[in-house]
Write a structure and sequence with these properties.
Helix content: 10-25%
Radius of gyration: 14 Å
Number of domains: 1
Largest sheet: 4 strands, antiparallel
Structural class: alpha+beta
Strand content: 35-45%
Number of strands: 4
Order of helices and strands: HEEEE
Number of helices: 1
Strand order of the largest sheet: 1-2-3-4
Shape: globular
Length: about 80
């Protein structure tokens, strides 16, 4: 996995907001090198974003974690 530039993070945030329909979504640079880029919604971190470069092609993988305790009660 490769590090992301601030420009890349900004462009990715615009794309994810549009794709997911969430203006409260932010893509946050890590506080120090070697840590993951975080994906947050309304300030709450919900996952990470990883950059991969293979044979000159760049892709981004979003890993989102949802805790069972955050789910609504069963009906």
């Amino acid at each position: 996995m490769s590090a992301m530039s601030s420009s890349e993070i900004s462009r990715l945030q615009v794309c994810l907001r549009r794709l997911l329909g969430s203006p409260g979504l932010t893509v946050n640079a890590p506080p120090r090198a070697g840590l993951s880029v975080e994906l947050a919604v309304n300030g709450e971190v919900v996952g990470t974003v990883h950059r991969d470069e293979d044979e000159g092609e760049v892709s981004y993988a979003v890993h989102m974690t949802v805790l069972e305790e955050d789910l609504p009660a069963p009906k």
